[in-house]
Amino acid sequence: MDRYAVIGNPIAHSKSPQIHAAFARQTGQELSYEALLAPVDGFAQTVADFRAHGGRGLNVTVPFKLEAFALADRHTARAQAAGAVNTLAFGADGIHGDNTDGAGLVRDLSANLNLELAGRRILLLGAGGATRGALLPLLDSRPARLTIANRTVAKADVLAALFAARAGDTALDACGFDALAGRRFDLVINATAASLADELPPLPPGLYAEGALAYDMMYARAPTRFMRAALADGAARVADGLGMLVEQAAESFTLWRGVRPDSAPVLAELRRQIDAG
Question: N- or C-end of the chain: fewer Cβ atoms within 10 A?
Fold first, then answer.
């Protein structure tokens, strides 16, 4: 049986084994999928051991996405743009590295939340790895404007410059949080780590245009503080990142197995379990 796993540290909390087991049942694929704990200083060796024992592919989570990028022999364009890898596929020709996070985000927004991204004004909060992974897929969706806002403006400026050549007709700019005053957006995506500590990015009021969506990449049983604040500030609707988690997994599964699973029932069941506590 083909072996797959998610590798990280910590890893016991991961929902990836449940998600991929559901995908396998749904598509009739014979495979096993486990959670693999790697020592912080032992990622490459753990991958080598897994591959030597018949491993076909790995999902990669914190804190190993940069090491996975370095380990891969080849990268997809989106992995190259992200500078990080969350999906490894092992073949006779070496290690193939991909990044499915941004594609999972875009698919959640478009397919699950029915948001047409083309022509929209998008605000992306943060300038770390999550933002970098999302930028190319978002730009490929042809929004009218994409603004990167970050507490440290220089980091946002670096990303805007790095992706300027890929922006096409999209107006791509960067600024600090205070410079957002007076501007309005159709979609605001929180890619900062603030929600992990139940904190808020220091945003000015009035960011949300009519019908706007506020999206938090973090997922939780209850709406995050960012989501609650967005509703109070005029967002028409909010969403967390559970759909992104399932959709990036579907992208990985498709890469490995050559068949795309139906993510909707898996997402619905996962949401039911989380809401039930």
Answer: C
* Residue 160 token pair: 């805007």
Q: How far apart are CA 134 and CA 191, in angstroms?
A: 9
Residues found in the chain? 277
Interacting residues of 6 by C-beta distance below 8 A, sequence separation 6+: 14, 16, 17, 33, 34, 35, 36, 58, 59, 60, 61
Q: How many Cβ atoms from other residues are within 10 Å of residue 114's Cβ?
A: 8
Residue 247 to residue 86: CA distance in whole angstroms: 13
- Cβ burial of 91 (10 Å; 0-12, 13-18, 19+) is exposed
Confidence of residue 277 (pLDDT cuts 50, 70, 90): confident
As a whole number of angstroms, the distance between CA 222 and CA 205 comes to: 23
Tens digits of residue pLDDT in 131-167: 999 999 999 999 999 999 999 999 999 999 999 999 9
Question: In a 10 Å sphere around its CB, with 0-12 CB exposed, 13-18 middle and 19+ buried, how is residue 197 labelled?
Answer: exposed
The answer for 42, left when phi > 0, alpha when psi is -120 to 50, beta otherwise, is: alpha
Please give the mean pLDDT across all residues of the chain: 97
Is the separation of the CB atoms in 23 and 253 below 8 Å? Answer: yes
Q: Which helix (H) or strand (E) holds 45?
A: helix 43-52
Tell me, letter by letter, the H, E, C secondary structure of 201-217. Answer: CCCCCCCEEEEEEEEEC
Are the C-beta atoms of residues 184 and 211 closer than 8 Å to each other? no
Between 16-27 and 242-257, two packed helices, what is the crossing angle to 10 degrees?
50
Whether 106 and 56 have beta carbons less than 8 Å apart is answered as no
